[in-house]
Amino acid sequence: MSRTSQPTRPHSRSESGRTTQGSGAPAVPTRKFVVATLAALTLIAAVVVFTLRGQGSSDDHTTAGAGHEGFGHVHGIAVEPDSGAMHVATHVGLFRIDDPHTAVRVSKDDLDLMGFTVVGPGHFLASGHSEHGPANVGLIESTDGGATWREKSLSGAADFHGLQVAHGSVYGYNSTDGAFMVSADQRTWEHRSRTAIGGFAVSPSDSNTVLAVGRDGLQRSTDGGRSWQPVPGAPAVGLLTWDRTGVWAVARDGAVWSSADGGGQWQRRGAVPGEPHSFAVQDGSLFAALADDRVIASIDGGATWTDRYTPE
User: Fold this and answer.
1) Cα three-residue angle 55-57-62, rounded to 5 degrees
2) pLDDT by residue (tens digit) across 19-41?
3) SS (H, E, C) the chain
4) Sequence-distant (≥ 6) Cβ neighbours of residue 198 within 8 angstroms
5) Which tens digit of pLDDT belongs to each residue from 169-199?
6) Exposed / middle / buried, residue 167 (Cβ in 10 Å: 0-12, 13-18, 19+)
7) Sign of CA dihedral 150, 153, 155, 158
8) Which residues fall within 8 angstroms of residue 4, CB to CB, at 6 or more apart?
9) CA 249 to CA 273: how far, in whole Å?
10) Mind listing the domains of the chain with CATH numbers?
11) Is a pLDDT exceeding 90 seen at residue 2?
């Protein structure tokens, strides 16, 4: 899974609390004041529950053309290996593509999803932003197909712009400080390096080999992301994904490239017919989310493409 992103210089964010102190003799609370205070606390509690559990009914929100607001920008696209269900992670939540003209918004809360990865059937990990909680949600998890999400770790501290589950661990790139991180339990994280990348892909056969789109071109790590070296002769690509059929990448001009040896030799295979926002591979089939909200697929290595979803 990969998304369009220029490598950015690491930056940090901080959240500061504010304490308000009164002065003089303490006032005796009136009954009306106490009732109003309890009501306010109840409302705050309701907002917290809303943030973690979602809103509205348990029904999916089915709309033609992805709803009136559209996808906005797709940060991640993934296909569940067993069911073949396709999901797109967007600025306005998570959508499931049911047919060529129907996108179902399955997330019920207001999440701007950045990093997104599939763990198993109906089981996802993600990161991004929430309007009702911390600005950066850290690592969050859904086990009901994306309808509701719960905190796993680094709430308020991490904004993963890249996530991938591989070899029993979660690999993540935290855009707030440029840290490339790995977790075996989704709660404690090892900070392996600081770098500026726009996306990465882990080898399906070697947990220590990682390719990443760097500021000066494609980068390779052979120690699990602890150090990085340029990949000589690699094309200038912006999107990157990797499965057992090889490394697949899309250049900024839409050209599709592949490598069967982990990035040593490259072959141009075709071109994406539009501006790609995100790119994925599943069992040799390629998928791309385009700027016009279309989602397309190729079964011949990018030579030809067919529509998987087109807004009406």
Assistant:
1) 100
2) 323 333 334 444 443 334 434 43
3) CEECCCCCCCCCCCCCCCCCCCCCCCCCCCHHHHHHHHHHHHHHHHHHHHHHHCCCCCCCEEEECCCCCCCCCEEEEEECCCCCCEEEEECCEEEEEEECCEEEECCCCCEEEEEEEEEECCEEEEEEEECCCCCCCCEEEECCCCCCCEEEECCCCCCEEEEEEECCEEEEEECCCCEEEEECCCCCCEEEEECCEEEEEECCCCCCCEEEEECCEEEEECCCCCCCEECCCCCCEEEEEEECCEEEEEECCCEEEEECCCCCCCEEEEECCCCEEEEEEECCEEEEEECCCCEEEECCCCCCCEEEECCC
4) 4, 5, 6, 7, 8, 161, 212, 213, 214, 238
5) 999 999 999 999 999 999 999 999 999 999 9
6) middle
7) negative
8) 198, 238, 239, 276, 277, 278
9) 14
10) 60-309 (2.130.10.10)
11) no
Written as one letter, the residue type at 160 is F
